[in-house]
Specification:
Pfam families: LOR (PF04525). Belongs to the LOR family. The protein has 132 residues and is an alpha+beta fold. The chain has one domain (2-130). The chain has helices spanning 42-45, 92-101, 117-130; strands at 2-6, 9-15, 24-27, 33-39, 51-56, 62-68, 74-78, 84-89, 108-111. Strands 1-2-3-4-5-6-7-8-9 form a 9-stranded antiparallel β-sheet, with helices on one face. A hairpin with a 5-residue loop joins strand 5 (51-56) and strand 6 (62-68). The chain is globular and about 40 Å long.
Amino acid sequence: LTDVSGDGGGFQIRPKSLSRHGRTNINLPDGRTVFNISRRSKLRTKSFQAQLSVAEGESKRAALIVLADMAKRTMKVINPQNDLVCLIQKPVKTLLLNAAFGAGSELRVDVAPGVDCSALLGVVFGITCMGQ
């Protein structure tokens, strides 16, 4: 369980207790689920690329899809119309810290204009809690 809080409120990231695809819920303090994130099946997508599905609320229908490269250094968040919504990158400094010390969690997040950046940052927190 991870709690994220700020001046305007906060949210909780909680992994689902039993799930085939490692579903993680992002909840508001009152218990309502804002997003749920799950791994997409490599058999169904016919891709070796790591993919995550982000759905609104308790739904299983993807509102966003996260595509990661093989090293999970760069992740693209796309919407159902295949528009790039967000780009998430691990800088070289972070990769070196991970290799040398096993620590380093810096991410560079670029959000497209007109997109709700606070919702996408909640999704980024959820992805990092899943170990992606």
